[in-house]
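We emphasize that the prediction below concerns an isolated chain of 296 residues; any contacts that depend on oligomerization or on bound cofactors are therefore not represented. The input was used exactly as deposited, without trimming of termini.
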Amino acid sequence: MGIKKHLVIILVLTLSIGILLTGCGKQSPKQRFMEALEKSQEINTYYMKGNIKLNLSFPENGLNFKNRQMYQFLKDLNINIEGRTQKEPALSIMDLTIRFSGVNFDVQIYTKNAEMWMKLPMISSYLYIDDYAATGQMGEMFDNKLAKKVIDSLDDDSFIMEKGITLENNIKTDVITLNLKNGELKNAMRAMMTILDSAELIKTLERFEKNMKTENLELKFYLDNNSNIRREEINGKLTIDDEENPEKKIAIDVYGIFDISEINRKMEFEFPDFEKEQVVPMKSNNLPTLSKVGKF
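Result of the prediction step, given as a token string:
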């Protein structure tokens, strides 16, 4: 769904899909979830605020990573995210505060259609990417046919619904909980690989499917009376085998919570005057991708 456009690490599992109704009567939790994701496609504007925590643990000795510094970076990562997005015409402004090694770094991201500008700490210029949406790394993740394939691969028993949960501002919601066991997570990744066109994504998913296991992965979606998703949570622990040392494992703990508000309200998007600012062009093929991270 559009809401997770900027949150790729947890966004794959909240994709928007075409609704599949299998007759009349009471909806199952899975059908209710699918209906809400379909409803999300009617959203043109929204405000999002949230936080994600990521912790990596791995053997300090004997683990041969090509990009060991990146793993150190992810060892204790905390990101606060706040921003607004518009689907048509495509605009977004996101403010991120990234904390690692006890230090905070502020990042601003501006997007307009296929253009993106990033303001990084300690850099006076804006980084400009003119074709980030065309790289094939993100766009396919939000395709309806892909999402339908993923959801269809999951067992109905993976979806549980709890009614009558009240959020802040007296928002009444039903909560859909999705519990992904190891086999179901792998089935979802295999389903994605059957429909993706991007060789980059397929290669990455093949590596994850081979080496990743989930000890527990729980996603919660809070749906209001209009079937809009108002809050999303992810909580889980994954392990990844190192390809070069199968007996060694990386453990990943992740927790995220994202609140969604101001749905379909008129919003203002104030961009810097980039013609007057210092801008450094970058090509998307020079950006880091998942397959460039190194072996797990």
